[in-house]
Design goal:
By secondary structure, the protein is of the alpha/beta class. The chain has 2 domains: 141 residues, Aspartate Aminotransferase, domain 1; 238 residues, Type I PLP-dependent aspartate aminotransferase-like (Major domain) (Aspartate Aminotransferase, domain 2). 36% of the residues lie in helices and 20% in strands. It has 13 helices and 17 strands. α3 runs antiparallel to α10 and α11 packs parallel to α13. The chain is globular. The structure holds pyridoxal-5'-phosphate. Pyridoxal-5'-phosphate binds next to α5.
Length: 388
């Protein structure tokens, strides 16, 4: 039996209610574009929340998924697998220094939970230091480190104690990190919190203080990873090497995937200290191999740096009255508005451009890394029309 009603009505009847939804049903994607049920085309400057770094339905990723779907999909990591053995060295090859141990999982929040467990196992300590304005996900450990009180407050009795200090405040961070700290967790560029790049001196000071105290420096690269900021990983702009890195979003070419990565020098974690039924499944591994290979072979990291710089210059040259400041790194750009972002997002969508909020007042652009200048000019034109 088919239930009656529009896509909106059926989803609203059965959905969780957890999402504030836009009144648009998107049904198809190709490259930087997505289409709604009526056949209207939008330029997707959200990349599906930062996931579709290669745009939608990249042919190499689509091919890898369909081939693997006919070969082997379900396999627990208690067995070895050829696709996984292909992915791990590829990940190692794009990670700097000796960041070469990986725990594969299925989402960003899981990568953060895994990073916390690894830090606890490696240090034997319990303390966690995170940043104000941080976003690390919605499961309890990740939620405890997420700053936004609206997300955190309803669950506060369940959340482990986390010391939150101001982002980019070196003094506050030095004071908060001690011999009891297991993990210092920060994004290399705060995404949800308003697109705030981490200062080089700040990240270097965190590294130094972690070395002094034996705490693990955990960098959340879930949104910034795989070329988004114009380097493979956002922390590379600072020259700092973290102990542990959380990865997700773009890693799987659109499939749900995450990973915890840590330095070889720290060794493996103990048997049965962590696990995941779906983690490292051959389908996700095949998609990730295709996606990371395409990012590398199409030179998308350098392209994000060049086009991101160009985008920032073009936006800065516009006479935008509603804008307080423009921040960003590579193809991760935030325009802090004088007013609320929601009406601006609606107006941009009416002009055929989908963008994201970052907090209440910041417009966030996360276009696919494959975007070209003509397509970026469409985004710039729509912003000029709406905010000029
Ligand atoms: C999206 C995001 C997360 C959470 O990822 P999920 O896959 O939604 O659990 C964590 N940290 C950062 C920086 C993110 O952008």
């Amino acid at each position: 039996m088919t239930e009656t009603g529009t896509t909106f009505e059926i989803e609203d009847r059965h959905g969780s209610g957890a999402y504030g939804k836009r009144p648009t049903a998107l049904v198809r994607g190709e490259g930087v574009y997505v289409w709604d049920e009526a056949g209207r085309r939008y330029l997707d400057a959200t990349s599906g929340q930062g996931v579709a770094a290669l745009g939608h339905c990249h042919p190499a990723v689509a091919r890898a998924i369909s081939e693997q779907a006919r070969t082997l999909v379900a396999l627990h990591e208690s067995f070895y697998n050829d696709r996984r053995a292909e992915l791990l060295p590829l990940l190692d090859s794009v990670m700097p220094a000796d960041l070469s141990r990986f725990f594969l999982c299925n989402s960003g929040a899981e990568a953060i939970e895994g990073a916390l467990k690894v830090a606890k196992l490696l240090t034997g300590r319990a303390g966690i230091v995170a940043a104000k304005r941080a976003f690390h996900g919605r499961t309890t450990g990740a939620l405890a480190m997420t700053w936004t009180p609206k997300y955190r407050k309803p669950f506060h009795e369940w959340l482990p104690l986390v010391t939150h200090v101001a982002y980019n405040d070196t003094h506050a961070a030095r004071a908060a990190i001690s011999q009891e700290t297991a993990a210092v967790v920060v994004e290399s560029v705060q995404g949800e919190g308003g697109v705030h790049p981490g200062d080089t001196e700040y990240l270097q000071a965190l590294r130094e203080r972690c070395d002094e105290t034996g705490a693990m420096l955990v960098i959340d690269e879930i949104q910034t990873g795989f070329g988004r900021t114009g380097k493979w990983f956002g922390f590379e702009h600072s020259g700092v090497v973290p102990d542990i890195v959380a990865l997700a979003k773009a890693i799987g070419g659109g499939l749900p995937m995450g990973a915890v990565c840590w330095r070889r020098a720290h060794g493996p974690i103990g048997r049965a200290t962590h696990g995941s039924t779906f983690g490292g499944n051959p389908l996700a591994c095949a998609a990730a191999v295709a996606a990371i290979t395409a990012i590398r072979d199409e030179g998308l990291v350098a392209r994000a740096a060049a086009n991101g710089g160009w985008l920032m210059d073009e936006l800065s040259a516009l006479d935008l009255k509603g804008i307080r400041v423009i921040r960003g790194r590579g193809l991760m750009v935030g325009l802090e508005l004088r007013g609320r972002v929601t009406p601006v997002l609606k107006d941009l969508q009416a002009c055929g451009v989908l963008a994201l909020p970052a907090g209440l007042n910041t417009l966030r652009l996360l276009p696919p890394l494959i975007i070209n200048r003509d397509e970026l000019a469409q985004v710039i034109g729509a912003i000029d029309e709406v905010l000029g």
